[in-house]
Write a structure and sequence with these properties.
Strand order of the largest sheet: 2-1-3-12-5
Radius of gyration: 18 Å
Structural class: mainly beta
Distance between the termini: 16 Å
Shape: globular
């Protein structure tokens, strides 16, 4: 029961964050689905069901549908999916978005959305080597990502896009 309450609260916070990032001219709909492997006609296929609760080890797919509600194109549209703290981003699951001839790859943050970059992300840490404190650059693991974002150069009038990424519940 405790996991279920946490899950519903996390999903509510994610939706509130997504909505807070929106403008009046963009409609956002963020949904979470449990990814299930089922047998159909002798083969294993994936099926998605609403994630009303989640247990450690379960795979969750987040889908953000964004729609331009205006009659004009919007430029430099930033769409963000926060990654809940009790989950770990599944590497390579945030697929690039094709907009005509343009391919928009996801960028990631490991610092709560303060900065973004393309993988592999790096951070500086202080370590002691041979009795001296030195600063080193280390690679940030995908499981440490806190946000994913796509920066769309243009979202056409009345156009919709669907962004997806997956996480594993810790």
């Amino acid at each position: 029961m405790r996991v279920k309450r946490w899950w519903v609260l996390s999903l509510g916070l994610l939706l509130a964050f997504a909505l807070a990032q929106s403008r009046n001219d963009i409609r956002l709909d963020l949904k979470a689905f449990r990814v299930l492997s089922v047998q159909e006609q002798g083969r294993t296929v994936e099926r998605l069901e609403a994630a009303l609760d989640a247990k450690p080890g379960q795979l969750i797919e987040y889908q953000l549908n964004a729609q331009n509600t205006t009659d004009n194109p919007l430029r430099q549209v930033v769409l963000i999916i926060p990654i809940p703290a009790n989950t770990a981003y599944l590497a390579l699951s945030a697929q690039p978005l094709r907009l005509g001839e343009t391919l928009v790859a996801a960028e990631f943050s490991f610092d709560g959305g303060k900065s973004y970059g393309s993988p592999p992300l790096k951070r500086k840490v202080r370590v002691v080597e041979n009795g001296k404190e030195v600063e080193k650059e280390v690679e940030v693991k995908p499981e440490e990502y806190t946000h994913a974002r796509w920066v769309l150069p243009e979202l056409g009038a009345k156009q919709s896009v669907l962004l997806k990424l997956r996480t594993v519940v810790r």
